[in-house]
Amino acid sequence: MSAKYFCANCGSIVEQGIKFCANCGTAVNAQQPPQQQAAPAAPAYTPAQPYTPTQTVNVNVGYAPGAAVSPHNRTVTLLLCIFLGYIGIHKFYVGKTGEGIAYLLLSWTGIPAFIAFIEIFVIAAGSFKDDRNLPVLTW
Fold first, then answer.
1. What is the pLDDT of residues 15-63, one digit of tens each?
2. Are 120 and 82 in contact (CB under 8 A)?
3. Contact present, 104 and 110 (Cβ < 8 Å)
């Protein structure tokens, strides 16, 4: 069996002892085939804990599982804030009576209505807290 080489011009395989390439017709110099390249290195990053679909995700980000949560309902708080937030009814519901009275006394200025509009988003995001400083999270 004869050794095989590559043509320097076109790269086709040429057997040993052939003077001209059969593919392109150029004179062949004895050229060894290129060495096999090593396999690419493994990526440097390897995840510490691969994701598995059985893992649970804590939707209450920032609150540890089993942490104390307000007994008040977030849906009720949100609806009260949307419809009666300008007079502070949602504040009375979660036990913040002093703030509710302040909303009632200042309702003619429109300031409580503006604050209640912002609190709609705070309640929906789960950052609203009751009188005991517990987050109102339960829908």
1. 777 777 777 777 776 555 555 555 666 666 555 655 555 544 445 555 6
2. yes
3. no
The pTM for the full model equals 0.54
Contact 66, 93 (CB under 8 A): no
Q: What is the dihedral of CA 115, 93, 67, 59, to 10 degrees?
A: -60
What count of residues does the chain have? 139
Give the span between the Cα atoms of 99 and 92, in whole angstroms: 8
User: Could you tell me how far CA 138 lies from the centroid of its own chain?
Assistant: 24
Cα separation, 89 vs 104, in Å, equals 9
For the record, the structure tokens of 75 come out as 């849906």
Closest CA to 59 of 72, 71, 74, 48: 74
How far, CA to CA in Å, does 78 sit from each of 30, 69, 122? 84, 16, 9
Per residue in 50-90, pLDDT tens? 555 554 444 555 566 667 888 999 999 999 999 999 999 99
